[in-house]
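Help needed: design a sequence for this.
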């Protein structure tokens, strides 16, 4: 990034691209995490079911019953922990994204690009909302864990399972929503980059920002390698 700072001409464009790519990466990471967690949950559920079956077989002895309950408790605890970890990771991601947005906003202020400023604001708001929700969910988890230690009943366990499932669903929904928002934002940016030509630049007297000259074959220059871009810019030092 520091290198880019030196070259004022392409500075803004490069920054935007870097941030966009980073956002994409983060989304990917989040999705991966979600998938991993889901897999783990499924595995856990399977194991639990098998254990329950085995225990039921041996239920002649009452001791086994107690053992079963204990095992279930342990499993639930593990699940809770996992969920919490996931939440924390998500929060970290959100924080990072918000930082990036702040950086972008700062750059926008210099460029006086109001549209982008608005977009950023909206994104930040969304992030905040998400973080709030996550905090709430984590708190609920804590409460559940507390309850877990006290109660020793199957019914409660089943209820917990249901709640877990619900939470997972909610999380997935939220992730999807976020993905959609980020994608719309991304496509918009790219469209802006690709559709703005040199004429617009002269007409609106832009300094830099998203305005790129079209390449000879009509594509925007960020689809090319850096070397090609540099050559092009050397030939057309607007």
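Sure. Designed sequence:
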């Amino acid at each position: 990034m520091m290198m880019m700072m030196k070259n004022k001409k392409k500075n803004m464009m490069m920054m935007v691209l870097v941030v966009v790519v980073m956002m994409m990466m983060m989304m990917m990471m989040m999705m991966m995490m979600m998938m991993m967690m889901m897999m783990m949950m499924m595995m856990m559920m399977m194991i639990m079911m098998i254990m329950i079956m085995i225990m039921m077989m041996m239920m002649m002895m009452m001791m086994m019953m107690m053992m079963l309950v204990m095992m279930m408790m342990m499993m639930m605890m593990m699940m809770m922990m996992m969920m919490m970890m996931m939440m924390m990771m998500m929060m970290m991601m959100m924080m990072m994204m918000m930082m990036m947005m702040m950086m972008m906003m700062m750059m926008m202020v210099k460029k006086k690009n109001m549209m982008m400023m608005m977009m950023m604001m909206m994104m930040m708001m969304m992030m905040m909302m998400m973080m709030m929700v996550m905090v709430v969910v984590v708190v609920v988890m804590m409460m559940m864990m507390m309850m877990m230690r006290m109660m020793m009943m199957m019914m409660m366990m089943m209820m917990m399972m249901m709640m877990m499932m619900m939470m997972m669903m909610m999380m997935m929904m939220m992730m999807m929503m976020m993905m959609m928002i980020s994608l719309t934002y991304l496509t918009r940016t790219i469209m802006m980059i690709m559709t703005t030509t040199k004429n617009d630049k002269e007409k609106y007297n832009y300094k830099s920002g998203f305005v790129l000259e079209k390449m000879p074959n009509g594509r925007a220059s960020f689809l090319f390698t850096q070397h090609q871009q540099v050559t092009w810019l050397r030939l057309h030092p607007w």
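Helices lie at 2-6, 8-57, 62-111, 114-150, 154-195, 198-204, 226-235.
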